[in-house]
Amino acid sequence: MFPVAQMVHPPPRSRGGRPRDPSRDGVIRSAILRLLADVGYGAMTMDAVAAEAGVGKATIYRRWRTKQDLVVDTISDLNREIAVPEDTGSIEGDLRAVMRLVGRSIDSPAGAAIRALLPAMQHQPALVDAFRNGPLAVWRHAYAEIWSRAEERGEVRPGLARSVTAEATSALIVQRWLLTGEPIDEAYIDQVLEVVVMPLVRNAHPDAH
Predict the structure, then answer these.
(1) Long-range Cβ pairs for the range 110-114 (8 Å, 24+)
(2) Do 167 and 104 fall within a single domain?
(3) Fewer Cβ in 10 A, N or C end of the chain?
């Protein structure tokens, strides 16, 4: 037991001495994504992140104690631009808008970083949770909003959000992203929408059966 005089605890403080500089967060996160895409999770180090971002190591450690903390925090905050999908007034317009947003997102440094993380996710549950609660949750929310609006307009039958039809709207984009590595440009997305997605959606119209 420590004497009573020695049990006075200091007030809580941040992980480092000086307060964080929020203006550096974006620079550091961009550096993390670039390194993940270039070298993968296993080879990435805190020192490398500091060097890539052009900041001191203390700046990194004030934000994150470990590499896992650093990556989890970065992944959790991805894809926020997809959180509020555009309301175009029709299911076709809404799907085109969100599919293009998703395409730009996964064909970006963020998408390359997540693809590079997939092997590490098999052994790092925290990374899996970060992906599910971050980018994947945002993605699902965007599509759920679109299906909800389509139901209100009477364009699709109720309950479509968690159906195979709903999954099919992004399946080919994900396949190209993860398996073939071919570009996901607007021409490809529009072709998927016209040839695959819209026929399925029309079949889900309340009057289709």
Answers:
(1) 110/33, 110/78, 110/79, 110/135, 111/177, 112/33, 112/36, 112/37, 113/32, 113/33, 113/34, 113/36, 113/37, 113/75, 114/75, 114/78
(2) yes
(3) N
Do 40 and 109 belong to one domain? Answer: no
Count Cβ atoms below 10 Å from residue 56 Cβ, excluding itself. 11
Q: Are 159 and 204 in contact (CB under 8 A)?
A: no
Question: Looking at the structure, do residues 42 and 118 belong to the same domain, yes or no?
Answer: no
Same domain, 135 and 176: yes
Distance CA 104, CA 102 (A): 5
End position of a domain, from candidates 38, 58, 76? 76
* Domain CATH number, residue 31: 1.10.10.60
Estimate the share of the chain in helix, then strand, then coil, as percent rounded to the nearest 5: 70, 0, 30
Written as tens digits, the pLDDT of the chain (209 aa) is 333 333 333 333 334 444 455 667 889 999 999 999 999 999 999 999 999 999 999 999 999 999 999 999 998 887 665 666 779 999 999 999 999 988 888 888 888 898 899 889 988 999 999 989 888 888 888 889 999 999 999 999 988 888 888 888 889 998 998 888 888 999 999 999 999 999 999 988 877 65
Report helix, strand or coil for 72: helix
Cβ 96 vs Cβ 154: under 8 Å: no
